[in-house]
Structures are given as C-alpha cells and as structure tokens.
C-alpha cells in the first residue's frame, strides 16, 4: 500500500504478560550486543557510554515510502557509525519491523519491538499505527520519531513522546487553501481515504478554507484497504460529476489515487473546467518511481501536486548522487527518504547530548504490566526507559542542519519553516510552478531566499507560474459549473400590485414580465453555460410583498435566488450576496407644490434677509473706513459735518455701480477700496444671474424642503408597502412609526398628497427614486424636494458565496457597456413630457454662506488699514506732546490727550498743505509766463490783488 497510509483500525489496548527467562548462556552476548543490559533486582543498568545503542524502526517495507525509508535509514546508520565526532565510538544498531500495512499487525510488531531494550523508535510510518504505538511510547517513555505520520491530530499534549520529524498535514492543507483562494475559487470537493490520516487531514483543510471564506461543499470518503473496486470508485465519481464545484482535492494513498484518476479520465473529468489538487502522496510516487506507465501519466495531465520542500544544498546533491549509485536508478529519492535519513541523525545527536549530560541507559519494570499465563508476547520484558524524558528533551532542543534543511522545533513541537513545492504534471514529467511557505505564502522564489526579508502576504505578492490545466489549457478554470443533475433554480419573483412596469406576473400564466425580468434574462443569456430556472411568485397578489421576508427566504433554502426590484441595503447584504446593481436607487421626498409669481418685489428674492443686511452694513462700514483714512489728507472728504455725512453715504452707495467721484489719495484707502470693489463685482454678478433665473424660469414652492423638514415636523409621511423605506425612517432617522402611512399604489400616493395632513392624507411621501420617477411621469402636481438622502441600487439576490452572483455581475456590466441595459430601461420606463419639464422646486436663494469668505477678506482689510492708521496717529501724538503736559493732573492729562487725539484726526495734514503750496507755485509760474507774454493782463491782475488787500 502506497504512502504507508495504513488503513488500520485503532484497537483497544490489551494487556499481555508472560514469563521472561534469561539464562546465563545469553548473559555475556547480551551484555555487549544488546544495550549492555544486565538485571539487578527491579531495574537494568549499563555504563554511561555503552558499546552499542539500540534503536527501533517501524514502517511498511514494500510501500512507496517504506522502500525509500529502508535504504535511507540504513545509510544514515552507516554514516553515523563512521563519524567519530558523534557518539564517540558507541555503535548505533537499528532493529526494523515491518508493519505490513495492517493496523493490527503493526500494533503487534510494535509491541514485539518494545520487548527489546530500545531507547527510541524511528517511525511509525502510518498515522493509524502512530495513534496506537504512541500510547505504548507514553507508557514506556520511549521517543517516537516519525518521518511520515502527517496526521495533524497527533497532538504533543496527548502523545508527548511522539516527535514528528516531517511537516504536519496542517501546513499542507494551509497551502492547498491558499492555492484555492489565490485562484478565486470558493468551493472544493474533497476525496479522501476514510482513516485517521484522511479524515483528519480533510478536517484541517476545512478549517483553513473557512479562514479564506471558502468551504468544502462535498466530501467523498473512500474505504481504506486495497480491496476498493473500480465500480465503487465509479459510483463515487459519478456523484462528484453532478456537483457544482469543479475543484477536487485528492487526499488518498497511491493505489486508490491512481484508480480515481483513471476512472475520472474515463468519465471525462480530466478535461476542461476541472481542477485537481493532489497532496504529497502523488509527489512521493513521482519522485520514487523510475518511470510510471504512460497510461497512468496520461490520466493525470494538468494535476497540481504538493511536495515537501527541501532546500537545495551540496550535501543533498551529494547524497542524491550516492543514492543513484546505490539503487542503480531503479528507485528515486523522495522527500520522505530525506526525512528518514535526518531522523536517524537527529536521534544520534540527541543521544550524544544525552550522554554528555551524564545520562545513563537504564530500564525499570512497569508495574502495570502483569503476568498473563500462556501469552506469546514477553510483555514483562517491556520496561520503562528511565532516561526517556531527558532524551526527549535533548531531541526537542536539537539545532542542526540536515538534508531537509534546518532541524529545529518550535513551541508547538513542529519543525520550523514549513514549506512545500507546488508542481504541475505535464506530459511524462512534472514542472514546478512555485512554492508555498508558512512565512510568506505563495511565491515563485524559493522560501529560503525570502527568510531574510520581512514577511509579505499581500495579495500582490502571492504569485505562481502559469499552470497547464486539465484539457491542456492555460486559461484558469472557473472552478464551478451549474450542476448537471436536472435541478432547476427556484427563483422568487415579487408578485407586485403597483408599479407593474418593473416586475409583474402575466395574469393567468406562470410567466413574468417587466424591466427587472428583461435585465435578468438578458444577463443569463450572456453566461457561457446554461442555467435552468423557474420563476416562483412571492406574495398574495393583493398587496406588495415584504422584500425583507423575500430575502430571508433565500437563507432558509426555500429559494435559490430572488429577481426583482430588490434594493441593496446593509441588513440584506449581511445574509445574502447581491449582483452588481443594474439600476440606481435611493430614497427621495416627493411633495405637492405651488407656482410662485414674480410680483412687484421679485427683485428682492435673489438674496435672503441676512445677505441683504450684511451687504448693506458693509457698504456703510467701507464708506466710514475710507472716510477715516482720507479725511486728513483729502479735501474731498472734508467740510462741514453735514457735508461729510453726505459724502460717506454717497461714496458707499456709488461703489455699487463703480460710479464714485471722490478720489482716494492714501495708500490704505486705495487698498481697502480695491478689495471692496472686487467684492461688489462678485455680488453684482451673482445678483444679476439669480434675478435673471427668477424672472425667466418657472419657480415652484413647497413647505417641505427635504428630509430634514420632515424629521423636525410632526406631520404624517407616506411610504410604499413592502419597501425598506419604513425600516430606514424608523430605525435610521428615528421617526415615530405612528407618523408613517402605508400606501400601496400610485393612485393612493396622489390622493394622500392632494388631501394633505388636514384631510387624512400625508405631507410628503418617501420612496425610492425609480418609483417616484415613474409616479411623476403622470402626476404633474408633485415634485421631488430636497436631495436624494440615500445611495443604493437594485440587484439580484443569491445565497452567500454563490459563484453565480459573480458571473451575473459580470454579465450585467456587459449589458451596461454595450447599451442593452439602457435600451431595456427605455422600453419600460420612458418618461412623459410631464416629468421632463424644467420646473424645479424653489430655486435656492443666495445665502451669506456663499459669500462669507469675501466679506471676511474685506473686513480684515478694513481692520488692518484702520490699525495701521491709528498707529500712525498715535506716533504723531507722542511726538507732538508738550513736555510740561506731564506735570498736569491725571484727569486733565487724559482729557487733554483725547482732545489732541481727536483734533489730530480732524486736523488737515501738513503733507496736504505742502502739496497745495507746490501746486500753487506751479500755477503761479504758469501765470507769470502768461503775464510776460501779456503785460496788460499782468497789470489787471496786480490791480485786482491790491483791491482785495485793501478790503482785507
């Protein structure tokens, strides 16, 4: 039986006892050849460094692993005995026992092996035998170093003396799960041998797949033993062929595995669309066999296989060359042979460390083993190894490098750095497509090259080379098909009473029509495979059904899917999978309206009251600021108080039309004016645009402004029966249920809105946009108010992790891209002229929030200009202050400074006087030139001046 995966049954432990007799003639040979054991009273003791140390080995000699392991163990023993640096002259002797692929015989032979005074056992090979022998090892405290028992349930807690020197199937199944997830598959079918090895391995696979949100959809156990018939395999695979999943994990032994492949090829299951993943049982055969028959290789084309990864090294290459000479090329070297070889070296190093710490090989009789007369097993010869715990401790603390790489154990007593090769069966051989390691996942780089880098398990870093899949194709299989077992999908369709344009049942028939149905049929027609289905109406036909109940029916298995105007909302996505949305949706508010006439005061509507107030205030503020800045140096801003007040008012209002006549002289005044004129430009432009819209576009008004208005009021709100709007309004917005009124048709919508709250109607209706658009296409008295306050869409519902949902989403995207989705929409949901009118509800007025930035900039400019100006005034005030003014009283000093400050502000600037003198002198020069050219004019001017002087 291949792989040494014995189909053994766990047998209850039976206690045997027989009399052990040792005569003197056997004493001396045993003293030097068999552990140097000598009975003294209750125990047997030897010297610290005996001449011979005995080990045991349990495996199946004629199995795929056993043939390789036998040679590897023998060569390892030779190498250990030839190496003088280890054991220091003590010879290693290994007694091999053949378990014969039988659980019962394996147990008996293990017990016979235990009769000898051995201190460790290499093996067992089979996981089934390992479960049994581990109980004996626990009792006698003899370490078991298994190089092939990969059952992950062989726990170190239950079996402390069981040491696995090979990687557990827990890591192999982790690798399988990551391969499945890497290619995007969700369901797999597991075919396994029905013993401890197969069941526990597949159980670990199920756990690891669940971590990736994948699952085993169907399990196929194969009876253990070599008597499995081809017809039994045929019956099992026929059932597999009817399943939905096309990803098959094969975790068996070689005999059963090859028969599965041949029957699968006969059934056409090794062709396009199928994925076969075989665990390391197949790689051990491919590595060990010199050449498999061509028909056997032909039946495995495209299979993905896992193999224990052993790093390449000079020692490994040298041993492989030596192996070829030993076997003459008739037997290949598999990874299990390398693990068996390293197991011998591991125990040899541990024994050497055991002796160096002063360990003594001694045995004590087990008080629990009693004498049974007539027994054939010398159970009283099986003694407890006194140094078992110390030797086990040395084994677990080992740190060496073997043919398989580093040999160290982590905290859970597993070998460090688990890794697997991923290979692809092609033609007459295999091709490596990548690696898996527990450190960094899938990669095309050997794991040992990644250990120096930080671990990176991002999806972009998970890579494998291209695979030639069954059917000799490079295209990745979808991983599933619609099951070919004659079963039709039971698809629930809401039996609507209103808005039948979306979905409705043809009266008197079992067929359905509508926008949603046409989209579903068009998407199904784009799938590359046939999908048999039948529509089943959901609802009583008298009112719209509850869509929440419809979605829940999918989770119970009553329906396989749901097709209709089903909104994709959060609480539904938790229990089912939706396709890509095929229609945009969202809740909106619809309310009655009235038309607004322009009227005599329409010119005030572009701005709201606050905007008008702030704008007016800023006009006067800017006028005052400019007056302050210009008053001392600009004659146009001087004069009597009345004149100055009029100047401020006129200057402020004239800036609105950029027609101010007063010139600004100061730098600060010009800066403030430039910024203010920019603000006025923006305000004028916005006002003109808004007023134009008001006077030319029809304006509609409604007391309801949107969902916020409804929340703050206590008026009744309508909603559609069966819609998720009821749940959203009550649960999300906190609106009391007593305010909600269920409405079942567009006619009920219109009547409730027309009646209003005063006559038993509603103030507004909250519903999804597609329904409202269809409603407004015939009802011109109502309009949507406010903004759409939820964003969602309509999709088709399927059970969680349904692969059909993914393919349907792809088909819907294709419909959208090629324009068919829009054509279907126009066919059923064409709007009338009523809904296409350009009237909108109450265009928003211009609010202060749209301009506060401009006013802020202008206000800051005014403040800074005034601040600089007053600093200048204060500086002049300090320089002009009289020294003797300090001697005055405090009150007089303060009032005096205030008077000087105010007089300084009102005082005409010297700079202004100087500029006027310059201007006067320039004008006089011009006049002198004129007088020189005209003496008469000069005389007249002089006469007039003399007259003025005489008057003064």
From TrEMBL:
<keyword id="KW-1015">Disulfide bond</keyword>
<feature type="compositionally biased region" description="Basic and acidic residues">
    <location>
        <begin position="909"/>
        <end position="932"/>
    </location>
</feature>
<dbReference type="InterPro" id="IPR001828">
    <property type="entry name" value="ANF_lig-bd_rcpt"/>
</dbReference>
<keyword id="KW-1071">Ligand-gated ion channel</keyword>
<dbReference type="GO" id="GO:0016020">
    <property type="term" value="C:membrane"/>
</dbReference>
<dbReference type="GO" id="GO:0009611">
    <property type="term" value="P:response to wounding"/>
</dbReference>
<dbReference type="InterPro" id="IPR001320">
    <property type="entry name" value="Iontro_rcpt_C"/>
</dbReference>
<protein>
    <recommendedName>
        <fullName>Glutamate receptor</fullName>
    </recommendedName>
</protein>
<keyword id="KW-0812">Transmembrane</keyword>
<keyword id="KW-0407">Ion channel</keyword>
<keyword id="KW-0325">Glycoprotein</keyword>
<dbReference type="GO" id="GO:1901701">
    <property type="term" value="P:cellular response to oxygen-containing compound"/>
</dbReference>
<comment type="function">
    <text>Glutamate-gated receptor that probably acts as non-selective cation channel.</text>
</comment>
<feature type="disulfide bond">
    <location>
        <begin position="780"/>
        <end position="834"/>
    </location>
</feature>
<feature type="transmembrane region" description="Helical">
    <location>
        <begin position="609"/>
        <end position="629"/>
    </location>
</feature>
<feature type="transmembrane region" description="Helical">
    <location>
        <begin position="851"/>
        <end position="871"/>
    </location>
</feature>
<comment type="similarity">
    <text>Belongs to the glutamate-gated ion channel (TC 1.A.10.1) family.</text>
</comment>
<keyword id="KW-0813">Transport</keyword>
<dbReference type="Pfam" id="PF10613">
    <property type="entry name" value="Lig_chan-Glu_bd"/>
</dbReference>
<dbReference type="InterPro" id="IPR028082">
    <property type="entry name" value="Peripla_BP_I"/>
</dbReference>
<keyword id="KW-0732">Signal</keyword>
<dbReference type="InterPro" id="IPR019594">
    <property type="entry name" value="Glu/Gly-bd"/>
</dbReference>
<dbReference type="InterPro" id="IPR000337">
    <property type="entry name" value="GPCR_3"/>
</dbReference>
<dbReference type="InterPro" id="IPR044440">
    <property type="entry name" value="GABAb_receptor_plant_PBP1"/>
</dbReference>
<keyword id="KW-0675">Receptor</keyword>
<dbReference type="Pfam" id="PF00060">
    <property type="entry name" value="Lig_chan"/>
</dbReference>
<feature type="region of interest" description="Disordered">
    <location>
        <begin position="909"/>
        <end position="952"/>
    </location>
</feature>
<dbReference type="Pfam" id="PF01094">
    <property type="entry name" value="ANF_receptor"/>
</dbReference>
<dbReference type="InterPro" id="IPR015683">
    <property type="entry name" value="Ionotropic_Glu_rcpt"/>
</dbReference>
<dbReference type="GO" id="GO:0015276">
    <property type="term" value="F:ligand-gated monoatomic ion channel activity"/>
</dbReference>
<feature type="compositionally biased region" description="Polar residues">
    <location>
        <begin position="933"/>
        <end position="952"/>
    </location>
</feature>
<feature type="transmembrane region" description="Helical">
    <location>
        <begin position="671"/>
        <end position="695"/>
    </location>
</feature>
<keyword id="KW-1133">Transmembrane helix</keyword>
<feature type="domain" description="Ionotropic glutamate receptor C-terminal">
    <location>
        <begin position="490"/>
        <end position="831"/>
    </location>
</feature>
<dbReference type="GO" id="GO:0004930">
    <property type="term" value="F:G protein-coupled receptor activity"/>
</dbReference>
<keyword id="KW-0406">Ion transport</keyword>
<keyword id="KW-0472">Membrane</keyword>
<dbReference type="InterPro" id="IPR017103">
    <property type="entry name" value="Iontropic_Glu_rcpt_pln"/>
</dbReference>
């Amino acid at each position: 039986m291949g792989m040494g995966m014995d189909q053994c049954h766990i047998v209850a432990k039976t206690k045997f006892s027989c009399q052990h007799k040792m005569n003197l003639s056997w004493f001396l040979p045993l003293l030097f050849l068999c552990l140097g054991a000598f009975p003294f009273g209750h125990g047997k003791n030897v010297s610290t460094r005996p001449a011979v140390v005995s080990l045991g080995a349990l495996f199946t000699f004629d199995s795929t692993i056993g043939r390789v392991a036998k040679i590897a163990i023998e060569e390892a023993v030779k190498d250990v005995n030839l190496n003088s640096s280890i054991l220091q002259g003590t010879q290693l002797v290994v007694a091999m026992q053949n378990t014969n692929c039988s659980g019962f015989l394996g147990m008996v032979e293990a017990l016979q092996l235990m009769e000898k005074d051995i201190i460790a056992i290499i093996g067992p090979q089979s996981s089934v035998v390992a479960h049994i022998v581990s109980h004996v090892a626990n009792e006698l405290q003899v370490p078991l170093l298994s190089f092939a028992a990969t059952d992950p349930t062989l726990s170190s807690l239950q079996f402390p003396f069981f040491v696995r020197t090979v990687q557990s199937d827990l890591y192999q199944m982790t690798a399988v799960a990551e391969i499945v997830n890497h290619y995007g598959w969700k369901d797999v079918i597991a075919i396994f041998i029905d013993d401890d090895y197969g069941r526990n391995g597949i159980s670990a696979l199920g756990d690891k797949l669940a971590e990736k949100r994948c699952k085993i959809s169907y399990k196929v156990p194969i009876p253990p033993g070599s008597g499995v018939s081809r017809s039994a395999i045929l019956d099992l695979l026929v059932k597999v062929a009817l399943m939905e999943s096309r990803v098959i994990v094969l975790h068996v032994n070689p005999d059963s595995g090859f028969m599965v492949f041949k029957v699968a090829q006969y059934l056409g299951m090794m062709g396009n669309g199928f994925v076969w993943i075989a665990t390391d049982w197949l790689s051990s055969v491919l590595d060990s066999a010199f050449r498999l028959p061509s028909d056997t290789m032909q039946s495995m084309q495209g299979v993905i296989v896992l193999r224990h990864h052993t790093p390449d090294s000079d020692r490994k290459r040298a041993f492989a060359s030596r192996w070829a000479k030993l076997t003459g090329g008739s037997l290949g070297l598999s990874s299990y042979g390398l693990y068996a070889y390293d197991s011998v070296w591991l125990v040899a190093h541990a024994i050497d460390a055991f002796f160096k710490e002063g360990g003594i090989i001694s045995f004590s009789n087990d008080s629990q083993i009693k004498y049974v007369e007539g027994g054939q097993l010398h159970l009283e010869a099986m003694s407890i190894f006194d140094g078992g715990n110390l030797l086990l401790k040395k084994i677990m603390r080992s740190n060496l490098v073997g043919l398989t790489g580093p040999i160290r154990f982590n905290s859970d007593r597993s070998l460090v750095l688990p890794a697997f090769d991923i290979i692809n069966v092609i033609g007459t051989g295999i091709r490596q497509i990548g690696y898996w390691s527990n450190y960094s996942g899938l990669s095309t780089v050997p794991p040992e090259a990644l250990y120096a880098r930080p671990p990176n398990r991002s999806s972009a870093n998970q890579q494998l080379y291209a695979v030639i899949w069954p059917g000799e194709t490079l295209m990745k299989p979808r991983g599933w098909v619609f099951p070919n077992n004659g079963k039709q999908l039971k698809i629930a369709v809401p039996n609507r009473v209103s808005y039948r344009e979306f979905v409705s049942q043809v009266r008197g028939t079992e067929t359905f029509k509508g926008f949603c149905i046409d989209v579903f049929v068009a998407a199904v027609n784009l799938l590359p495979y046939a999908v048999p289905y039948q529509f089943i109406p959901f609802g009583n036909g008298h009112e719209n059904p509850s869509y929440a109940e419809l979605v829940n029916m999918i989770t119970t298995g009553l329906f396989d899917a749901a097709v209709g105007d089903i909104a994709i909302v959060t609480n539904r996505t938790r229990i089912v999978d939706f396709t890509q949305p095929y229609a945009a949706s969202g809740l909106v508010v619809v309310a009655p309206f009235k038309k607004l006439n322009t009227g005599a005061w329409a010119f005030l509507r572009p701005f709201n009251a606050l905007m008008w107030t702030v704008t007016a205030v800023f006009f006067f503020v800017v006028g005052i600021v400019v007056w302050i800045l210009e008053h001392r140096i600009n004659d146009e801003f001087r004069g009597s108080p009345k004149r100055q007040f009029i100047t401020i008012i006129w200057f402020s209002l004239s800036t609105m039309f950029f027609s101010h006549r007063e010139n600004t002289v100061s730098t600060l005044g010009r800066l403030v004016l430039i910024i203010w004129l920019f603000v006025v430009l923006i305000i004028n432009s916005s006002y003109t645009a808004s007023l134009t819209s008001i006077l030319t576009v029809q304006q509609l008004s409604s007391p309801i402004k949107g969902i916020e208005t409804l929340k703050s009021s206590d008026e009744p709100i309508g909603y559609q029966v069966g819609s998720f709007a009821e749940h959203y309004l009550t649960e999300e917005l906190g609106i009391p249920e007593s305010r909600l009124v269920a409405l079942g048709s567009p006619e009920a919508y219109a009547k409730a809105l027309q009646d209003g709250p005063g006559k038993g109607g509603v103030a507004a209706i909250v519903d999804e946009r597609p329904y409202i658009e269809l409603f407004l296409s015939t009802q011109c008295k109502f309009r949507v108010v406010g903004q759409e306050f939820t964003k969602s869409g309509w999709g088709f519902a399927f059970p969680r992790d349904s692969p059909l949902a993914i393919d349907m989403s792809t088909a819907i995207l294709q419909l959208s891209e090629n324009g068919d989705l829009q054509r279907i929409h126009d066919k059923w949901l064409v709007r009338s002229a009523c809904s296409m009118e350009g009237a909108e509800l109450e265009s928003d007025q211009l609010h202060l929030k749209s301009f506060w930035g401009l006013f802020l900039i202008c206000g800051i400019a005014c403040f800074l200009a005034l601040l600089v100006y007053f600093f200048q005034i204060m500086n002049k005030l300090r320089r002009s202050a009289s020294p003797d003014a300090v001697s005055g009283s405090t009150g007089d000093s303060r009032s005096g400074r205030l008077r000087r400050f105010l007089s300084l502000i009102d005082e005409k600037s010297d700079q202004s006087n100087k500029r006027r003198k310059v201007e006067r002198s320039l004008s006089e020069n011009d006049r002198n030139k004129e007088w020189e050219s005209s003496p008469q004019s000069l005389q007249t001017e002089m006469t007039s001046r003399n007259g003025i002087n005489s008057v003064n």
